[in-house]
Amino acid sequence: MDFEIRGDRTPQGPRKLSREREAYSRLVQQGYSNTEACRIVGVDRRTGNKWRNGRSGERNRKPVPPIHVVVPARGPSRYLSEDERIHIADRLREKTTVRAIAAELGRSPSTVSREIRRNRHPASSVYRPHAAQARADARRPRPKPRKILQDPQLREAVQAMLEEKWSPEQICQALRQRFPDRPEMHVVHETVYQALYVQGRGQLRRELAGALRSGRARRRPQRQANCRQPRFTTPMVMISERPAEAADRAVPGHWEGDLIIGKDGRSAIGTLVERATRYVMLLHLPGEHSAEAVLTALTATARTLPAQLMRSLTWDQGSEMARHGEFTLATDIPVYFCDPASPWQRGSNENTNGLLRQYFPKGTDLSVHSPDHLAAVADQLNRRPRKTLGWETPAERLHRLLAA
C-alpha cells in the first residue's frame, strides 16, 4: 500500500487527501475496522470517522457525503445472518447509532435494537457477534419445552386451582401473589391454555379441560373475515357495490333497515329509515322475527311505497335477512349488506333505533304493541323537526322531494 506511512504529515486540505480517502474506502469495503484502515492509510481516526459517516470537521464547510460501505447480503432469510451480526458489532464499537446501523443493513431499527438487547453478554452487556449467533441458534429450535411440563411444583399448583374452577387468568394472578420472588412460578394465561389444549404430551390431566368455563377440550379456530363461510344461500351484495346516489343522500328511495329486540330476544320490531329524508316506517312482527316473518312484513310494507321510493335497502348481516333474494324478486328492491361489525354504515338507522327506545325500552316485551301503535309512533317521529334537515320534518322533506 502506497500510504502505509504517509511521510508528509502537514495539513494538506481536503482535496490533497482524495487518494487517501479512496484508499480508506477500499479498505473499509474489504472489512477493515476504522482504526486499522486509518493506520494503513496514515490519517487520524477522527478523519476516518468523518469520511465514513459523512461529516465535515469545519462548521462553514458543506458535509462530505459518506463513503459507500458494502453491506453483507441478507439473502432470503428473515433472520439476521452472522455477517450482519459482525457488522453490528463493528459499528457499535465505533459508537454508531442503532438507526444508522439499521439503515446500512436494510433492516428495521427495532430489529437491530432487539438483537442487541437479546444477544449481548448478560454480565458485561458487550455485544459479541459469534456469541450472539450461538445464542440465536440455541433459541430458534421449535417446539420448545413447555414451562408447566418442566416444573412439577408449578404443574401441581395449576392443576389444584383448575379443580377449583379458577380461570387461567385468575391462576396466573394467584401464582404471582403466592410466589412473588420466584419468577419460575410465574406464567401467563396463554401458557395455561396451551397446556390444556395440547394433546398427548401429559402436561395437565385431560379431564381438567372440562373445568374451563367454555367447556371445550380443544381450541376453536377463528376464521379471518375474508375466509368466512357464506352466511346465506343467496350470495350477498356488499355495501361497496351500492350506487353512489345512495351515499350522497341526494335521491330519495334508499332505505336502511334493522330490528330492535325485546326482552330475552323473544320479540322484535322492524325499523326502516329513508336516508335522504330520515322518514321512518316500522314493521309489525307479533309472533317471531325469523327470516320468513321478516320477509312477509318487509314485502308487505315495501309494496305500499311509490315506485320512486323503491331504490335500495341496506341491512346488516343478521340471520333475519336470509331470504333477501326472495324479497328482491318480489319487490324489485336490491338489498345491500354492511361489512361485519360496521354499524356506522347504517348510521341513520342506528340513530333512529336510539330514538325509538324512548317508546320501546330495552328489556320489555315488544309483541304487545299493535300495528296502529307502531304507525302512531312512526308518525310522531316523522312530524318531529330535525336539525340535520335544517329543522324540516322528515314528512315535509319527503313530500318536497317527491313533488320536485
Tell me briefly what this model is.
This protein has helices at residues 13-16, 18-29, 34-41, 45-53, 82-93, 98-105, 109-119, 129-139, 147-150, 152-163, 168-178, 189-197, 244-247, 291-302, 324-331, 347-356, 371-382, 394-403, and strands at residues 254-261, 268-274, 280-285, 312-315, 335-337. The protein has 404 residues and is α/β, with parallel strands linked by helices. Helix 3 (34-41) packs across helix 4 and helix 11 (168-178) crosses helix 12.
Description of the structure:
The protein has 404 residues and is of the alpha/beta class. The protein folds into three domains: 58 residues; 65 residues, no CATH class; 165 residues, 2-Layer Sandwich (Nucleotidyltransferase, domain 5). Strands 3-2-1-4-5 form a five-stranded mixed sheet, with helices on both faces.
Topology:
Elements: H1 13-16, H2 18-29, H3 34-41, H4 45-53, H5 82-93, H6 98-105, H7 109-119, H8 129-139, H9 147-150, H10 152-163, H11 168-178, H12 189-197, H13 244-247, E1 254-261, E2 268-274, E3 280-285, H14 291-302, E4 312-315, H15 324-331, E5 335-337, H16 347-356, H17 371-382, H18 394-403
Parallel strand pairs: 1-4, 4-5
Antiparallel strand pairs: 1-2, 2-3
Helix pairs in contact: 2-3, 3-4, 5-8, 6-7, 7-8, 11-12, 14-15
